[in-house]
Amino acid sequence: MAWWCVFYRSALPAAALSLVACASGTGRTSVAAPAPAPAPVATPDPAVELVAQAESHLKAGVAAAEEGHLDRARSEFDQTIDLYLSFPGGAYADARVAEGYRRSLEAIHVREIETLAAGDGFTETGTEPAPIDDVAALPVEETPTSPETRARAEAAVESEALDLPIELNEAVLSCIDLYQDRLRDWFEAALSRGQRYLPRIREVFAEEGIPRDLAYVALVESAFKTNAYSRARARGVWQFIATTGKRYGLHVDWWVDERSDPDKATRAAAQYLKELYELFGDWNLALAAYNAGERKIVRGMTRYKKDDFWELRKTRALKRETKNYVPLIHAAIVIAKAPERYGFAVEPLPALEWEQVPVEGAIDLRAIAECAETPLEDVQALNPELRRLATPANRTFGVRVPRGHGDSARTCIANLPEDKRVRFRTHVVTRGQTLASIARANGVRARDIAEANNLRLKGRLRPGTELIIPISPRSRVVSASAPRPARAEAEGRGRVRYRVRPGDTLVSIAAQYGTTVHDLQAWNGLHGSRIAAGHFLTIYMATPQD
User: Pick the residue with more confidence: 522 or 141?
Assistant: First the structure.
């Protein structure tokens, strides 16, 4: 037996001997230690847990907003705020919760400002300057044409199939030089963009019986940009002003502008060009009239007794823009027939292939893009005639989605919840009401109501007229003439008009009336937490149930 085992046996009291085991002949001894005390169970800290949950929702909301999923982002932000307000004693009962609440409010406010800048479903989509605005400033015929340009152009005209007579005079050759030098990058990009539309344009022009080479009028007018908008308020690939567009069947209202629909506008352009040719009997004069208007050309021909464009061009009958316009088209046709001959590398954009899905009423295009599982930019490219980020509220619209996505988009759109639809309400005009008074009651601009309903801003309203009232998805203003929020109706709430007192905050008012900051903001169209003493808030209180 080991000596240290003997020592411990003699040293331990008898009652403890049973706890000591000495192994004889093994050289090992084991001592049974007292059972360890159970580790204390950590009590969850409700403040830490709540802040973690709230920050998770906040992070998800920011990510959704960055991807353009605004309804999803708003839902996550709402859950963030509701979590803080649900903390026992309120969001300021614990310093850690209060700090998290402050950080979240600031982050959400910043995101809301960014979203407002990006626009909502009722904000008009952007446009780009139309190239036609710069035609008058081009230095046509200001420099001598190189012999190489003339030789190359003559070879192109002789070898290429042309269905429009091309004049290789100094003006046209000068424009060819401009395209090869000063305008090289612009021309190459425009020609590449045009490959997406040119096959259809040529097809329509052939059906209408006009030269297919006139397709390059669109290159000079807009560089084949569907959202091109000129100083003269002309729009789209073919740069129609509103009155001329309507004359050829292009519908324009607050929701839709068919001048930006390349297919419909191409048909209208073909009909207009055909009509101009029938009037003048000459394609150059017809092109000049497309730019300047037929009356301007007729007056010039009458005054100067000229029936040839190139002769009329030498007079003061035409503005510089029109004088440059026709030779620029001739030059574009010459180069476009064989761009590689001039050193252009044309990289065609992929053709747009789509199918149509009927959509009833106003739905945010971002929601439609989600349903079609495609980027928002693709949906906009397929539907350039839509002036808003939404389909029209007052009719069924056939929205185009990428080919192969129609069935899934159709099913998804049919089952969209209400919060995915663009918010608007209708209002029936009563005696004495004006656009201004209706706008104030609904928390929107009078101009938006006028445009949404094709009304003059200063015009009189006839009693009984039903108006569309566009409402931003972030503005849920509730007025005496507007329906109560669904939540207020469901909970049987009564309406209270509360005057803000010095020292009041949305948090203190929400606690006083048993509601949330989010609801106060929604009922009063508030985007932040600032309120001023003396202002009135609309509050819906719970009322006793029978």
Answer: 141
